[in-house]
Design a protein that fits this description.
By secondary structure, this protein is of the alpha/beta class. About 30% of the residues lie in helices and about 25% in strands.
């Protein structure tokens, strides 16, 4: 609304200006979203608990009682009645692998320790994934299984050969530090009795030197991974977005992706462009890998690779590998 004050006495014009300013101020205080009638934990020692909160432009503008928040409710305000339920700030998992594991689990997710599976559960999930493969699939790829519940006489390439035959199979365990592969996968990678253990990895062997199919730590996995089908960027983005939605479903609103290489940064770049990265993230670019001093990447180089990509809202960190995993018996 515009007033032409050239025809209005000065006192009236002043009154109109005050009224307009007051209305604008009141409107500016109206919250976008209000949560009421809850048990809200604030993590503020001076006011640890509240009944209600008001949010505007993505920020808390008021924390207090239901009555105190009521004045910030307007006709456009979304009001959520918590019904006495508890609410608290978003949780943070600062060591996760959404970019890598989201993609891997989109191929085939097997049950891990958190769901306390039986071996029969894992085997049923493997066969279900196998049966869903299309006719053009060249590999079976899965992630997430708990190796601890496998019978020892079945955690080997021969058992997988019975399931997959000549189709190469690569099955990362829930740590992603180790994998079980079949004979076809070992053959494609050229891994045999004479293959030495790579730096930062162990090829589990029988007494005669024959590889069992259990590949331990990244150095060993890197013998197999170059043979896997090339990753499709859209599939990687979809896997990352799936992982972020999983985080949010459990109340995690921020994460640290704990092993990033420059080749992974376009995944985040495209996910941001698509509007599908709706959680705060810190990207830990690998600064020291399993190959020791030869794998050191200087902080200045990490910063440069980060700046080569458009990653608004992402924080930068560094990943340093100093040992392995409990499951692989390689932890310090």
């Amino acid at each position: 609304m515009v007033f032409n004050t050239s025809y209005v006495p000065a006192t009236i014009a002043a009154m109109i200006a005050v009224a307009l300013a007051t209305g604008a101020s009141a409107q500016s205080n109206i919250a976008d979203t209000v949560y009421t009638n809850g048990r809200i934990y604030t993590v503020d020692e001076k006011q640890p608990w509240a009944d209600a909160v008001a949010i505007k432009d993505g920020k808390f503008v008021k924390v207090g009682t239901n009555a105190e928040i009521r004045d910030l409710v307007g006709t456009s305000t979304k009001v959520v009645d918590l019904g006495g339920r508890m609410a608290l700030p978003g949780l943070i998992d600062h060591h996760a692998h959404p970019s890598i594991d989201g993609y891997m689990r989109s191929k085939c997710e097997l049950p891990g320790s958190f769901v306390n599976p039986k071996f029969e559960d894992i085997l049923a999930a493997i066969k279900a994934c196998r049966d869903k493969l299309d006719g053009g699939a060249k590999w079976f790829i899965s992630s997430g299984h708990s190796a601890a519940v496998w019978p020892k006489d079945k955690y080997n390439k021969e058992f997988l050969d019975e399931i997959f035959g000549d189709m190469p199979a690569y099955m990362e365990d829930e740590t992603a530090h180790n994998a079980l592969v079949n004979s076809a996968a070992l053959k494609m990678a050229g891994v045999g009795k004479q293959t030495p253990d790579p730096e930062g990895g162990i090829i589990e062997r029988r007494s005669d030197g024959e590889a069992t199919g259990h590949m331990i730590e990244f150095g060993a996995l890197d013998l197999i991974k170059p043979q896997l089908p090339k990753k499709d960027l859209n599939a990687q983005v979809a896997g990352l977005q799936w992982a972020v939605q999983l985080f949010k479903s459990y109340g995690f609103t921020a994460y640290g992706d704990a092993q990033i290489f420059e080749a992974d940064l376009p995944i985040f770049e495209k996910a941001i462009q698509d509007g599908g990265l709706t959680a705060h993230g810190t990207l830990f670019v690998q600064a020291l890998g399993n190959a020791g001093s030869s794998s050191i990447v200087a902080a200045s180089k990490i910063k440069e690779m980060f700046e080569r990509h458009n990653l608004p809202g992402r924080r930068l960190g560094a990943k340093v590998i100093v040992d392995g995993s409990i499951e692989g018996t390689t932890a310090a």
